[in-house]
Amino acid sequence: MGLSDVLPAGLLVRVAVRAYAGESGKGPAYGATVTVPAVWDDTARLVRTGDTARAEAAGTVYLDLDVACPPESLVTVPDGRTLKAVAVSRLDGGGLPVDHQEVTVV
């Protein structure tokens, strides 16, 4: 089950995700853009990035587990900003219809 199966349509927005695919000779490489339903929480907070530096997170995107969004992916949120995923937590509801991933973006 996905977010759209358990949440009212009014709580969902559409975000565009370009999954990070690694480094190329020209810099970061990304997959094709996919537009998916999500919950967007634009609460800013201080987080640590992968290199232990501090950054102000622009918010958190909640996605279905089947959406490819590893750290370093690009996520375009409803206000049009394209942000970078710095942390991804996959949460399994243990059989309940609440499986999702939380993606912190800066």
Q: Tell me the strand percentage band.
A: over 45%
* The CATH C-level class name: Mainly Beta
**Uncertain parts:** none
- Helical/strand content category: mainly beta
Helix percent reads: under 10%
Radius of gyration: 14 Å
Through-space gap between termini:
28 Å
Q: Quick one: biggest sheet?
A: 6 strands, antiparallel, barrel
| Total helical segments | 1
What spatial order of strands do you see in the largest sheet? 1-2-5-8-7-6
Average of pLDDT = 90
Describe the structure.
It is a single chain. This protein is mainly β and 106 residues long. The protein has a single domain, classed as Thrombin, subunit H (Beta Barrel), CATH 2.40.10. Helices cover 4% and strands 56% of the residues. It has one helix and eight strands, in the order H-E-E-E-E-E-E-E-E. The chain has a six-stranded antiparallel beta barrel. Strand 1 and strand 2 form a beta hairpin. 18% of the residues are buried. The model has no long low-confidence stretch (mean pLDDT 90).
How are the secondary structure elements laid out?
Elements: H1 3-6, E1 13-24, E2 27-41, E3 45-48, E4 54-57, E5 59-63, E6 74-76, E7 82-91, E8 100-105
Describe the structure using short key phrases.
106 residues; Thrombin, subunit H; 6-stranded antiparallel beta barrel
Summarize the structure.
With 106 residues, this protein is mainly β. 4% of the residues lie in helices and 56% in strands. The strands form 2 sheets. It has a 6-stranded antiparallel barrel. A two-stranded antiparallel ribbon has the order 3-4.
